[in-house]
From TrEMBL, chain A:
PANTHER family: GLYCEROL-3-PHOSPHATE ACYLTRANSFERASE 4, PHOSPHOLIPID ACYLTRANSFERASE
Record GO biological process: phospholipid biosynthetic process; triglyceride biosynthetic process
Keyword Protein transport: no
Gene: LOC115815899
Gene Ontology MF, one: glycerol-3-phosphate O-acyltransferase activity
Transmembrane segments: 20-43, 185-205
Pfam families xrefs: Acyltransferase
The protein's name in its UniProt record: Glycerol-3-phosphate acyltransferase 4-like
Keywords, sorted A to Z: Acyltransferase, Lipid biosynthesis, Lipid metabolism, Membrane, Phospholipid biosynthesis, Phospholipid metabolism, Transferase, Transmembrane, Transmembrane helix
Location in the cell: Membrane
GO cellular component: endoplasmic reticulum; membrane
Family to which this protein belongs: Belongs to the 1-acyl-sn-glycerol-3-phosphate acyltransferase family.
TrEMBL record, chain B:
Keywords on record: Calcium, Cell membrane, Cytoplasm, Lipoprotein, Membrane, Metal-binding, Myristate, Nucleus, Phosphoprotein, Protein transport, Repeat, Transport
UniProt record similarity statement: Belongs to the calcineurin regulatory subunit family. CHP subfamily.
Lineage of producing organism: Eukaryota, Metazoa, Chordata, Craniata, Vertebrata
Species for this entry: Chanos chanos
Protein name: Calcineurin B homologous protein 2 isoform X2
Domain EF-hand: 109-144, 150-185
Amino acid sequence: MGPFFSPFDNLLCMLLGISFTVWFTLLLVFIIVPAVFGVSFGIRTLYMKTLLKVFEWATLRIERGAKEKNHHLYKPYTNGIIAKEPTSLEEEIKEIRRSGSNRDLDSSSAGSSEFEMSDIFYFCRRGVESIVDDEVTKRFTAEELESWNLLTRSNYNFQHISTRLTVLWGVGVVIRYCFLLPLRVTLAFTGVGLLVFFTTVIGFLPNGRMKNFLSEKVHLMCYRICERALTAIITYHHSENKPKNGGICVANHTSPIDVIILASDGCYAMVGQIHGGLMGVIQRSMVKACPHIWFERSEVKDRHLVAKRLNDHVQDKSKLPILIFPEGTCINNTSVMMFKKGSFEIGATVYPVAIKYDPRFGDAFWNSSKFGMVNYLLRMMSSWAIVCSVWYLPPMNRLEGEDAVQFANRVKAAIARQGGLVDLLWDGGLKRGKVKDTFKEEQQKLYSKILVGTQEDRSRS
Amino acid sequence: MGSTASTLSKIPDVETLMQETGFTPAHMVRLYDRFKALDKERKGHLCPQDFGAIKELAENPIGDRIVGAFFSQGQETLDFHSFVRILAHFRPVDKDRPRDPNVPEPINSRSNKLKFAFQLYDQDKDGKISRAELLQVLRAMLEMQVTEEQLESIADRTIQEADLDRDEAISFDEFRKSLEKVNIDHKMSIRFLR
């Protein structure tokens, strides 16, 4: 048998070994160590600025290219595709009748409100308008961008406009998939692994200050590593309003990443359902180090049980603030939907937090009907970065004579205002379910007021 | 961003469709996106349940009639072509169109808009709005807010006024006549943004 390893193979092994070591050292020095201590080299901010310049160039190039070739540029409108007139039911019907009335206008009822065949036009038009474009369905699909960020997934029709642009896009793909993605996946595994390991170890310590202190440090460190695994560039505003023990932190929900973003800046008690698999392992080990609130699937339906557990947790001032997303589902970060009132009934101080993602770098919205969790995470890790702003709003308490729903709406309005999001009354549950019949009644009531109002006049006169 | 040409190429027979309906390429792309957004399960066609997911439509008292108008006689599926053809009814009237008797009437003519509204009343498609059908619409628009007697009196009065040939029903011509002065174009048109 001849020599098994040729000198070439030897060289190859050596090179691989060296590059691996270099890789890991860089990783350790530039990413993990700062994560542990909570400092930052500013590399990510530099990266972000460079990317923005590149995107600007790319957009200009596309516009120029389109003009040269006389192509029709498809500019997405976030404000809808039809012009909806904000006139009310009453005004419109009066107008229809005024123009079509065969009777004299100065008869007993000017702008007379008796049923006309043409009344149906109003409802018909409104109905078709909503088929073409409605406020709510828009919120459950990803936001459309005004400029292109070199990701094919946010470009509806990628076409060859110029060689330079295509080359740039190609380079982008290589960087994202061959360099950034493996790096991020390694970090993610490291972060999660460390979390599970350390929290299990801490679980063996006796309850006390030492345990809480260590648990805090460990949680923060691991979340920061995960944050870097997504290249998340987060700006925290108003940190003086950070949630305190015995309070409830509420935030608008766009994706599961929201948790990582908030938890890398403060310690929270999480609330949720116990899952199986990897998630379940993480959940179970986390709860060993500090008290989180995990529910069994069967317990989730029992609203009183849920409320009681939340209440008990909040009463104990030594426990961490609870983190809750009252919308109940992921919204695409252009609006805030109806808050479920459960968390607002407990009577604890509420610390609202607004999270707004910058869509230019990567769309963070999780469309759970389109992508599964793993698919979603892979998409996140192969985007350029996740850039977002977090605003801590001043704490709010329920006022005298205000019920839970009004309180929830007040908090929601504050969050929407701060984050620059649209404040909608609709229920996030509508993503999957159908509208209740009570809404139809509203329209019927309005219309009948116009008709019946004058029936009474007529009988009086 | 990119050019509309590549999305347009995904739509079959788009040229004839644009000619027929008068929509611009930009409109077609937008409507195609909307069609796909409504078709959540990506079947390639729409069914009545897909319309049920539109909240504002469910709130509309005649919402289900409007949905019914999209699905012709007994069909359960709606493809993109039919979707666009129905929506074309709501394009604003082209005022500069020459009155050429040889060219078929455009979908968004005043007369066709009226026909669309007429079929919302005339559910059994016999060409007449009977008293019963009128009552049904009134009930849908008013439900619990008004008594049955009031509904019946409204229906009777309306038929009395519009029914010229005294057959206790309103035909399409009588319908059209009673709405002579109404500005149909304005009330039955949707302004599409560029």
